[in-house]
Amino acid sequence: MFAALASHPWAYPMLEVAHIVGIALLLGNLVLIEARVWGFGPALPAEPLARLGLAIAVAGFSLCAVSGLVMFATMPQELLANRVFTAKMALIAVAACNAGLFHARGSLQRLDGPARALMAVSTLLWLLVITCGRWIGYV
């Protein structure tokens, strides 16, 4: 079934489109929240903005996860043998731990130096995830 998906003329490209839309929703909203944590838009209350932004970011991550799992299922052996793919998966795990730390310490209520550092690390990690994702086909 998944092999047929990979050979269909438009199915796999549409999965890639869904994956990119998920990336846009995830990273776009994280950058918005990061801007607020860094002090931009001080008239916007951080917590309500973050609730909205994080809900959309989670929806984007979910779209990426579902589309990514289906794409993975079309060629699991090749992807598991690809060092860039494994690096991407490791970076996603580190990004999840970073997000957990950000929320566990109550960073949205503090908006302090460590909160800004964790948000900067988050954005860097997601940019590295995207970079690895683009390089998978070339390594």
Please explain how this structure is put together:
With 139 residues, this protein is mainly α. Helix content is 83%, strand content 0%. It has 7 helices and no strands. The chain has helices at residues 2-7, 11-37, 46-74, 76-80, 83-104, 107-110, 113-135. Helix 2 packs antiparallel against helix 3 (46-74) and helix 5 (83-104) runs antiparallel to helix 7 (113-135). The radius of gyration is 17 Å and the shape is elongated.
Sum this structure up briefly.
With 139 residues, the protein is mainly α. Helix content is 83%, strand content 0%.
Outline the fold blueprint.
Layout: H1 2-7, H2 11-37, H3 46-74, H4 76-80, H5 83-104, H6 107-110, H7 113-135
Order of helices and strands: HHHHHHH
Provide the residue-averaged pLDDT.
92
Total beta strands: 0
End-to-end CA span? 26 Å
Which ranges are low-confidence, i.e. pLDDT below 50, for 5 or more consecutive residues?
none
Query: What structural class do helix, strand and pairing data support?
Result: mainly alpha
Q: Which of globular, elongated, flat, extended, rod-shaped describes the shape?
A: elongated
* Rg result: 17 Å
State the helix count: 7
Q: What helical percentage do the residues reach?
A: over 70%
Largest sheet: none
Strand-residue proportion: under 5%
